[in-house]
Structure formats: C-alpha cells, structure tokens
Amino acid sequence: MSVIVHSKRVKRKALVASLIGSSIEYYDYLLYGTVASLVFNKLFFPNFSPAVGLLIALASFGIPYFFRPLGGIIFSHIGDKIGRKSH
Fold first, then answer.
1. C-alpha 66: how far from its chain's center?
2. Taking the CB of residue 56, how many other CB atoms lie within 10 A of it?
3. C-alpha distances in angstroms, 45 versus 17, 36, 39, 42, 53?
4. The model's pTM
C-alpha cells in the first residue's frame, strides 16, 4: 500500500488545478448561457416567436442540470458493479 505525502506543495498544486478546472467549466457555462439567450433563439428556432424561441433555447441550457444527478446515480451504480476489479 502506498503512502501519500500531503505536503503544502501537493495541496497547493491540487488547489490550483481544481481552481483552473472549475474556472474553465463556469466560463463555458457563462458563454453557452449568453449565446443561448442572444443567438440560439434566432438561429435554431426562427419559426417561433422571439419569446418562445428564447424559452426553448434557455430550456436547452437548463435541462442538463436536472439530468446530471440522475446520470451520476445511474452510471456510478453501473461503474461500481461492472467497472471494479475483483480482488
């Protein structure tokens, strides 16, 4: 069994890496939300009224928030049962 040394350098490196990853993820959501509200309704839903097109575009942005936990539950169960190696 390997021993993990928790030095200040390792902790700082993990903190910086998680900060960079979270910043990129939130920037991605910011860009997608902005583009969804300004462009997608006109680009993908031109046959609807502007208000309905905006609601559909924002729904395409918001629906994954509801399904992400469900996918986590399902695929974590599958990963635990199938993906683990037997010892």
1. 11
2. 16
3. 38, 11, 10, 6, 5
4. 0.59
What is the domain range of residue 18? Answer: 9-83
Q: Per the domain annotation, does 4 fall within a domain?
A: no
For 22-77, what is each residue's pLDDT tens digit? 999 899 989 988 998 889 888 998 999 989 998 998 888 888 888 888 988 998 88
Q: Give the tokens for residue 64.
A: 């994954």
CB atoms within 10 A of CB 27: 10
| Any domain includes 3 | no
Report helix, strand or coil for 40. helix
User: Domain count of the chain?
Assistant: 1
Contact predicate 36/42, CB 8 Å = no
The values of phi and psi at residue 10, to 5°, are -65, -40
* Type and span of the H or E element at 72: helix 50-78
